[in-house]
Amino acid sequence: MRLFNNQNVLSRTVALIGALFMLHTVAVEEASAQSRIKDITNFEGIRDNLLVGYGLVVGLNGTGDDIDDAVFTRESLIGVLQRLGVNARDDDLDTNNVAAVMITANLPPFARQGTRIDLTVSAIGTAENLQGGTLLVTPLMGADGEVYAVGQGPVAINGFAAAGNAETITRGVPTVGRISNGAIVEREIDFDLKELQSIKIALRNPDLTTARRIAQVINAKLGGNPAVSTDPSTVQLKVPERYKGDTVAMLTDIEQLQVSVDTPAKVVIDEKSGVIVIGNDVRISTVAIAQGNLTIRITETPQVSQPNAFSNTGNTEVVDRTDIQVEDDSDRRLAVLPSGVTLQEVVSGLNALGVGPRDMIAILQSIKAAGALQADIELL
Questions:
Q1: CA distance 218 to 239
Q2: DSSP track, 208-254
Q3: Whether 286 contacts 337, CB under 8 Å
Q4: Residue 158 contacts by C-beta under 8 Å, 6 or more apart in sequence?
Q5: Residues 80-121: tens digit of each pLDDT
Q6: CA nearest to 133, candidates 105, 103, 163, 169
Q7: CA torsion, points 161, 163, 167, 170, in degrees to nearest 10?
Q8: How distant is the alpha carbon of residue 220 from its chain centre?
Q9: 115 contacts: CB under 8 Å, gap ≥ 6
Q10: Contact 52/140 with Cβ under 8 angstroms?
Q11: Under 8 Å CB-to-CB from 370, ≥6 apart: which residues?
Q12: 316-331, pLDDT tens digit by residue?
């Protein structure tokens, strides 16, 4: 056995191992930055459809609509009872165990007859709580006015309400509930996916670079040039000859492909909550920033002045004592952010100034106004 005593050989070996480790790390980071096509796009025809309906929830414990105030609840209840053979046209009709509600649901793509879907039930009258109620059979219609599902079942709510003589407490929203598997699909949406000759792939976040990359990845997988990016949000894909009549197999093959997603430089600001989100590609040109607040604090400390004991002269008086303090943040200094700083450097530089989210919003808007922020600002 020969031992390696050459220090240079050992050094080169260590350097090679380090280089391989760095290449592996870079490869892992690049792979982790990619996304599957199915996670960033929608395929034509594979989408939900919205359903809506109007119905009645019964069985409430005195927390339903006031029949005298909610005319639509009264008329709906009378109509339901008459269809069941009960004559309810009486001025004495009075109940608070019924609530008029709107029902909303999502019809999944390619849902077949007999499939069950979830329902969301929302009170539209004066009902205070839907706990314990049961939705009567209700048709659910699509945007075309056709009935696609029928719902019924007990309503489950997440919130609650409790009241006493002097205090009321409400947790969550007791006038909104859900019915799991509460509707049965009665009508299917006719759409033949497998016979399509071409299909549109829509990007959830439109971007020219990402759309072109998707087309390139698909072409590399299928061969030829069946995919073309027509605009920032659409990739037009022509079904190759070997996939004719089997579009599902083609979509299965391409939806797992990895694509590097490119995003525009953007700063999103929610002024109501003070939330700031800065994109990774945001850059700032050379700019100097100073931030300071003038704070004047006035404290009133009244004192009582009274004459000495057993004195026949003088009166007891309240004497004002005022303390005024002025803080102008004179310890704050002008900070310079060099050209081309990264996201981390932007955050570190602003944090070094000791500013909070509210002041940071004003600073970012001022930098944008000065033309030094190379990104768009979106206000929510």
A1: 11
A2: HHHHHHHHHHHHHHHSSS-EEEEETTEEEEEPPGGGTT-HHHHHHHH
A3: yes
A4: 172, 173, 177
A5: 888 888 887 766 777 889 999 999 999 999 899 999 999 999
A6: 103
A7: 0
A8: 35
A9: 108, 184, 185
A10: yes
A11: 287
A12: 776 666 665 655 555 5
pLDDT tens sequence across 158-194: 866 666 665 667 667 889 999 999 999 999 988 888 8
Rounded to two decimals, the pTM is 0.65
Q: Please report the DSSP string for 113-138 in residue order.
A: TT-EEEEEEEE-SS----TT-EEEEE
Per the listing, tokens 């850059």 go with 283
Query: Residue 238 pLDDT more than 90?
Result: yes
Q: Cα(123)–Cα(99) distance, rounded to whole angstroms?
A: 7
Domain ranges of the chain: 49-185, 192-260, 267-307+316-379
Listed in sequence order, the residues at least 6 apart from 164 whose beta carbon sits closer than 8 Å to its beta carbon are none
Helix (H) or strand (E) holding 359: helix 357-369
CA-based nearest residue to 347, from 268, 282, 255, 262: 282
d(CA 29, CA 270): 30
Helix, strand and coil in the chain, % to nearest 5: 25, 35, 40
Tokens 């380090």, residue? 18
Q: How far lies 370's CA from each of 58, 107, 123, 284, 286, in Å?
A: 62, 49, 50, 11, 11
CA atoms within 13 A on the CB side of 253: 16
- CATH topology for the 192-260 domain: Alpha-Beta Plaits (3.30.70)
